[in-house]
Structure formats: structure tokens, C-alpha cells
Automatic annotation (TrEMBL):
Family, similarity comment: Belongs to the Nudix hydrolase family.
The entry's keywords: Hydrolase
Nudix hydrolase domain boundaries: 2-134
Cross-referenced PROSITE patterns: NUDIX (PS51462), NUDIX_BOX (PS00893)
Xref: PANTHER family: ADP-RIBOSE PYROPHOSPHATASE YJHB-RELATED (PTHR43046:SF16), GDP-MANNOSE MANNOSYL HYDROLASE (PTHR43046)
Keyword Hydrolase listed: yes
Name this polypeptide is given: Nudix hydrolase domain-containing protein
Compositional bias ranges of the Acidic residues kind: 141-150
Cofactor(s) for this UniProt protein: Mg(2+)
InterPro entries, sorted: Nudix_hydrolase, NUDIX_hydrolase-like_dom_sf, NUDIX_hydrolase_CS, NUDIX_hydrolase_dom
Highest taxon of source: Bacteria
Coiled coil: none
Organism of derivation: Actinoplanes ianthinogenes
Length: 164
């Protein structure tokens, strides 16, 4: 069996990176924020996959992309690209019932790099939301933030996606 391959996009606007909020369909499954992206279809290149996945998950059309690096991901090695998109606001992709359930999109703060490095600040591919016992989870009715772990593992508040 061949290794599963993925492609992911780093889309930056005003110093923030676009992330997708998803939930597992498995019983007791968790939620997470991840870069737009997904698995390569048979015969598809990583470049083709990232263009398709960005459109499917965000409604944005890729106008330019640049390969950055390969990173491990729970479901396979991932080709990461910096991506420029045509003007427009992102919208949550259609839920086709396969894969994780899309919950929303948001522009989250991007990791900083010293300017002299000339590198691309790639955020973690996935930030997992901590599991909370039923009844203790805050809902959008009384809060517009979720707690998530940052790159160092500290718990921080993130604005909840306004899209769902």
C-alpha cells in the first residue's frame, strides 16, 4: 500500500492565516483548526490538489502558489504551499458527508519570524481543541471564544468562527 499524500495551503491576509474549523464524525470525536487542504486524488499532483481543496473548503480561487516544505500529518505526508488567492471573502465549503464536518473558517494570528530569515511562517497544520465534559463546553450563545493550545502548548482563547 502506498503512503497517503496530502497538500495544504498557507493563505495570509493582513498578518493572519486562514484556518478551517472541523469536527470528527466519529463518536466522541474532537474538533480542530487546520490549514485548508486534503488528500491527493489518484493521478492528481500536489499543486492540483491544493488548488482544488482551497476552492472546496473556502470558495477562494488560487491565483498563485509556491511550494514551501513537506510536513508529517496524522493522515500522511503533506506538501505545504504558500498560496495567493483572488479577491473575495472565504466561505465554508459544502458538507458532502465524507471526512470531517466543516464548522467554520477564521483568520487566526500567524507565527512570527525574524524578517532577516526570509522564511515562510508556517503555522501548525492542526490545532486540536481540548475535549470538555458534556455541559461544560461553551456555546456561541454565551461566548464567542474557544480555548485552544498554541504552538507551545499553552491554552489561549481564540475567536470562534462566525460562519457556524
Amino acid at each position: 500500500m502506498s503512503e497517503r499524500r496530502r497538500a495544504a495551503a498557507v493563505i495570509v491576509r493582513d498578518g493572519r492565516v486562514l484556518m478551517v474549523h472541523e469536527r470528527s464524525r466519529r463518536s466522541g470525536g474532537g474538533e480542530w483548526w487546520t490549514l485548508p487542504g486534503g488528500g491527493l486524488q489518484p493521478g492528481e499532483t500536489a499543486e492540483e490538489a491544493v488548488r482544488r481543496e482551497v476552492f472546496e473548503e473556502t470558495g477562494l480561487v488560487v491565483s498563485d502558489l509556491r511550494y514551501v516544505l513537506e510536513m508529517p500529518y496524522p493522515s500522511g505526508m503533506t506538501s505545504v504551499f504558500t498560496v495567493a488567492v483572488a479577491d473575495g471573502e472565504p466561505r465554508v465549503g459544502r458538507d458532502d458527508g465524507s471526512g470531517p464536518e466543516p464548522l467554520g473558517l477564521d483568520w487566526l494570528p500567524m507565527p512570527e519570524l525574524p524578517i532577516e530569515t526570509g522564511g515562510v511562517p508556517v503555522p501548525p497544520l492542526m490545532v486540536v481543541l481540548p475535549a470538555m465534559p458534556p455541559g461544560e463546553r461553551q456555546t456561541g450563545e454565551d461566548s464567542d471564544t474557544d480555548e485552544v493550545a498554541d504552538e507551545a502548548g499553552a491554552t489561549i482563547a481564540r475567536r470562534r468562527s462566525a460562519t457556524k
